[in-house]
Amino acid sequence: MRPVGRFAPSPSGDLHVGNLRTAMLAWLCARSAGGGFELRVEDLDERARPGVAERQIADLAAVGVDWDGPVLRQSGRREVYRAVVAELAGRGLVYECWCSRREIAEAPRAPNSPPGSYPGVCRELSEARRRELRSSAPRPPALRLASAVREFAVADLVHGRHVGAVDDFVLLRWDGTPAYNLAVVVDDAAQGVTQVVRGDDLLSSAPRQAYLASLLGLPEVEYAHVPMVLNASRQRLAKRDGAVTLADLAAMGTGTEEAVRLLLRSVGSAADTLGEAAASFDLRRVPAAPMTWP
Ligand code: GLU
């Protein structure tokens, strides 16, 4: 089947070489198989900063990434996400949650429950208590998914079959912001995405997303969670690590073509441009170990 891949940056800062490498890998996986490629700006939350998305889009184009459809901006789609939550609520799959972060951290939980998972406190509330909280709580409730499973399996081209935890994750935050897990699932389907290639920091989110997609009757996607780029102290590369964006590199005399070549070498390709690399790309040649930069 002809895949449709995508890249979905959050416009919280300029793309660094780690983000660009992931975008290039996603593009190579799709285009080397004659597939489609889509771009999405994940600008729903407060970290989105004006002007950043435009610079990210320009940097992607500069390294040779192209895309087929219009760039989808999540901020224009709040009604779509709300409608999906309303549909789930109509099926009895959504409940209100008034817990603060601190209450969640301190709540008693079953032994073996995965760290950070929601312990289900508000799922058990009586209707009378809910009514009371609706009028007395200091802020509106978040809306959570009433999950029927505790784990879910996904197929990953890098990690094989991956089984991971699914909890009653948030769909809409208390301030009405759609949660990442909801938006990503709705939008991958809306953009016809069949293949999700992204950093392996998101591997643990994939079971939640695949489970939600299954509840919504959306097609399964194929995942590839690829190793991230690390800094000299083996931590995830970040802006503060110095010359990490195309603009930083250019200021130090490393042009975009050179940066692209370096990144292509790091994914097992001898090509000089992204377009050339697509002719003979093989995900299996990408080293399993993270790349370090510089
Ligand atoms: N917007 C997310 C990020 O920049 C990526 C989402 C995804 O690829 O599913 O980390």
Automatic annotation (TrEMBL):
<feature type="domain" description="Glutamyl/glutaminyl-tRNA synthetase class Ib catalytic">
    <location>
        <begin position="6"/>
        <end position="256"/>
    </location>
</feature>
<dbReference type="GO" id="GO:0004818">
    <property type="term" value="F:glutamate-tRNA ligase activity"/>
</dbReference>
<keyword id="KW-0862">Zinc</keyword>
<dbReference type="GO" id="GO:0005524">
    <property type="term" value="F:ATP binding"/>
</dbReference>
<keyword id="KW-0479">Metal-binding</keyword>
<keyword id="KW-0436">Ligase</keyword>
<dbReference type="InterPro" id="IPR014729">
    <property type="entry name" value="Rossmann-like_a/b/a_fold"/>
</dbReference>
<dbReference type="Pfam" id="PF00749">
    <property type="entry name" value="tRNA-synt_1c"/>
</dbReference>
<dbReference type="GO" id="GO:0008270">
    <property type="term" value="F:zinc ion binding"/>
</dbReference>
<dbReference type="InterPro" id="IPR000924">
    <property type="entry name" value="Glu/Gln-tRNA-synth"/>
</dbReference>
<dbReference type="InterPro" id="IPR020058">
    <property type="entry name" value="Glu/Gln-tRNA-synth_Ib_cat-dom"/>
</dbReference>
<dbReference type="GO" id="GO:0006400">
    <property type="term" value="P:tRNA modification"/>
</dbReference>
<keyword id="KW-0030">Aminoacyl-tRNA synthetase</keyword>
<keyword id="KW-0067">ATP-binding</keyword>
<keyword id="KW-0547">Nucleotide-binding</keyword>
<dbReference type="InterPro" id="IPR001412">
    <property type="entry name" value="aa-tRNA-synth_I_CS"/>
</dbReference>
<dbReference type="InterPro" id="IPR022380">
    <property type="entry name" value="Glu-Q_tRNA(Asp)_Synthase"/>
</dbReference>
<protein>
    <submittedName>
        <fullName>Glutamyl-queuosine tRNA(Asp) synthetase</fullName>
    </submittedName>
</protein>
<comment type="similarity">
    <text>Belongs to the class-I aminoacyl-tRNA synthetase family.</text>
</comment>
<dbReference type="GO" id="GO:0005829">
    <property type="term" value="C:cytosol"/>
</dbReference>
<dbReference type="GO" id="GO:0006424">
    <property type="term" value="P:glutamyl-tRNA aminoacylation"/>
</dbReference>
<keyword id="KW-0648">Protein biosynthesis</keyword>
<dbReference type="InterPro" id="IPR049940">
    <property type="entry name" value="GluQ/Sye"/>
</dbReference>
